[in-house]
Amino acid sequence: MLTDSRLHTRVEADFEVRVGIPGDNTGARIVNISLGGIAILGNQALEQVLKNGYANARGISDHVVSFTIPGGELSEVCRLVHVRRLSESRFEFGMKFVGLNRKNREIISNYVNRHVV
Length: 117
Prior knowledge:
With 117 residues, this protein is α+β, with helices and mostly antiparallel strands.
């Protein structure tokens, strides 16, 4: 039997997300969230921004993501950890929170706790 070895419980979500500063709103949506990070559904334009836009010399790609969740508006730095192509023009992006602040950690924790099945 396979088990989920994630450190943090994740739950389904449906939040509009903006990536970068001032924030590229390409219709991307957060589809799940945990204290560890988020999964975003987006298009090819977002794939180009995330994969090619801001990688450092080691190939690490960090981005500011902003979204509204019950309990507050969050703006956090996330690291792109995986990209999965779902169709010709749709992608899933796995983003890890980098240095989640205490207030936002509490907001996300409360959301996750209310939505655990």
